[in-house]
Amino acid sequence: MDKEIIIKQEGSNDGRSIFLYYDSMAGVYLAYGLSAYYTTLVMDPYMSYSEEMQMPVALLRKKHILYLRQSTKKAEHKQKDFYKFVLNAPVGDAGYERWVQKILEKHNTLSY
Q1: How far, in Å, CA of 50 to CA of 44, rounded?
Q2: Dist. CA 88–CA 92, nearest whole Å
């Protein structure tokens, strides 16, 4: 996964796209930023906060990909490990900042 590509795609997210990246080491798909937010509107993924990327991250298993395919207008599989899903209607970013704060608070209250 290329950090710069993720930042660029999330920065230009059109309000209806979910970008997923496959992490072969962990065997999960990851959605960052707005893509993670939009994913939570369709399903209930495990959420965390990426300190390296400085944005929320949703962790999804392969079975979640099947659910996204059924719940979205269209899906593009651009590379071996990259997906783009398009929601049926644009969502925008209303409520995104408040949602990010909740994710970050939960992340920061974890005790080790």
Answers
A1: 18
A2: 12
